[in-house]
Amino acid sequence: MQASDRGGCGVKLRVKQISLSYGDTAIFQNLSLSLCEGEILGIKGDNGSGKSSLCLCLSGLIGEEDGVRLCGEILYDGKPLQKMSIAERCTAVGIVFQNPDSQLFSPTVTEELAFGPENLCIPRQEIAARIEEALRLCGIEHLKNAKTHLLSGGEKQLVAIASVLTMHPKILIADEITARVDIEKKERIRNILKSFASNGGAVVLVSHNSRDLAVATKTLELERGKDYADRT
Ligand SMILES: Nc1ncnc2c1ncn2[C@@H]1O[C@H](COP(=O)(O)OP(=O)(O)OP(=O)(O)O)[C@@H](O)[C@H]1O
Ligand SMILES: [Mg+2]
């Protein structure tokens, strides 16, 4: 389905008619959606349909490279993503990638979790409190002093989630983050996302997993190259 606009629900994200192409290849055209506080948008689609590309667009991480063309509007709380400072962007939206190795680069878990808020010049005491909170929410207090490179894949994924939570973003984008973890951690991650949404946030959740998509309050299926103009 095409995610539809709903007025009066605390719209956090509004996407208006965005089109993305790599060179001559259109990935999606005229895609519109909105996301309100408390909502979880589940995104599914075949490999190569553009799910990760959409996540990157929504995070402001795409659109400036050679051959990449992104048009349309992406607004967080009414403000265009393109006009936001890096700090504003980081507090509007946080993204967790499928492969945590592309996200983690600090030697220890604590340093990893402190990195983002330190760059936002958050006071030291507040950073410490955010780290404790994120470790607790992700059930990884025992990893606080662990060396990042020694963690298992599932542990790295939870640390990657925690590192985004310490930024206190309003919207969390999760790109296939349960794909590499065991059943217990999949359930834990679903609970983290549900709790994030029900505590004033909103979530974009990309997954092929039906149990993940069951936590979504609405879904969007992407088809490579599709023009969504007639559905807006
Ligand atoms: N920077 C880029 N330049 C050119 N082509 C790209 C670029 N990034 C992605 N693509 C291509 O765009 C298409 C969509 O890729 P994307 O990663 O968004 O798909 P996806 O739906 O996330 O797939 P998967 O389920 O495998 O993760 C793919 O064919 C990919 O090769
Ligand atoms: Mg992908």
Question: TL;DR of this structure?
Answer:
The chain is 32% helix and 27% strand.
> In what order do the strands lie side by side in the largest sheet?
5-4-1-2-10
Shape: globular
Question: What is the C-alpha radius of gyration, as a whole number of Å?
Answer: 17 Å
Structural class determined from secondary elements = alpha/beta
As for the number of domains, it is 1
Portion in beta strands: 25-35%
Secondary-structure arrangement, i.e. CATH architecture: 3-Layer(aba) Sandwich
Bound molecules: adenosine-5'-triphosphate, magnesium ion
Number of helices: 7
Q: Mean pLDDT, nearest integer? A: 93
End-to-end distance: 11 Å
Q: What can be said about the biggest beta sheet?
A: 5 strands, mixed
Predict the CATH topology.
Answer: Rossmann fold
Helix-strand string: EEEHEEHEHHHEHEHEE
CATH level-4 homologous superfamily: P-loop containing nucleotide triphosphate hydrolases
The CATH C-level name is Alpha Beta
What is the helical fraction, as a range of percent?
A: 25-40%
Low-confidence stretches: 1-7
Please tally the β strands and state the result. Answer: 10
